[in-house]
Amino acid sequence: MRIDDVYIGGIGAFLPPFAERPAGEGGSPLPDGLTGALVAGELPPPEMAVRAARQAFERAGADPSTLDLLFHVSVFHQGPDGWLPQSYIQRELGLDPHAMAVELRQGCNGMFTGLELAISHLRADAARGSALLTAAENFNSALVDRWTAHPGSYLGDSGSAVLLTRRPGFARLRSVATVSVPELEQLHRGDEALFPPGATVGRPLDFGRRAGQFRATAEAANVPALLGKARDELLARVLDESGTELTDVTRVVSVNTARAHAKERLMDPLGLPMSRSAWEFGSRMGHLGAGDQFLTLERMAVAGALGAGDRVLMIGVGPGLSIGAAVVEIVHSPDWA
């Protein structure tokens, strides 16, 4: 999707304290130095989303009551079963009750899906001026071991919010797109039965175990080729739509994972050095579900690492399997940086 009329007015972040991985947990330390993750204790994910959203509105100087759309992106449990977290967020923020509020469950790739849907919603009616995307997770649960459940990273807790606006903001979206690779659906399912759902019978979430089960199938041999083809075609598309060359990319923002993973699976195929990645900004947060990319962008902005004219290439991967990407152009350093 080529974009020239939607900006990022503000980004909000709720970052709980950093916790070192307990001794004896998660095996040996990862060789590239991941030592822990953000841990929120018992703070509910929707409350973290609300706090991040308030900061996004404040940074943008925007009135929550004028919002036209809310997407809350989730990965893990958000609260009581059968209850909807977006309604809580809408009430707490004092959003217009006529604004559409929806929860999106698109895994770790959910913010890219949300961007595409939100932009389409804004473009469908000239009277619509802004949309809010939130994401939040708390992985403190007997159903998941944050230190071992996701190979190559530790699971972190956080809240994030991105305010999209038709008015000029500190950054402009230039392109966004997603692609699916359904042939690899079993990679994140393994041999688990579809029913009853694992959480209802107390089965722990363990992506490493599921991936190991998938590796025993004939389809596993196709993973590198299918993933590489989908990734390369998607990145070529968003770069072309945004009028961006790889040499123009200031930073590449991806999933918060092991340094070796970021290098070997993304930066090396792109032919770019790790110095052009944003790995160091995300390495002490953990993998935050769908929040990695925009919280890393927020951390870079706060650190003063982004300037006018910089172009940031974002990419994410989620179960299903889906890949999302976007190009963001920095218009000016935000006042809150």
TrEMBL record:
Q: Which InterPro entries does the entry mention? A: ACP_syn_III_C (IPR013747), ACP_syn_III_N (IPR013751), Thiolase-like (IPR016039)
What keywords sit in the KW lines?
Acyltransferase, Cytoplasm, Transferase
Q: Which residues form the Beta-ketoacyl-[acyl-carrier-protein] synthase III C-terminal domain?
A: 239-330
Give the superkingdom in one word: Bacteria
**Which N-terminal residues, if any, form the signal peptide?**
none
What are the Beta-ketoacyl-[acyl-carrier-protein] synthase III N-terminal domain coordinates in residue numbering?
103-167
- Name of the molecule in the record: 3-oxoacyl-[acyl-carrier-protein] synthase-3
Q: Which organism is it from?
A: Streptomyces spororaveus
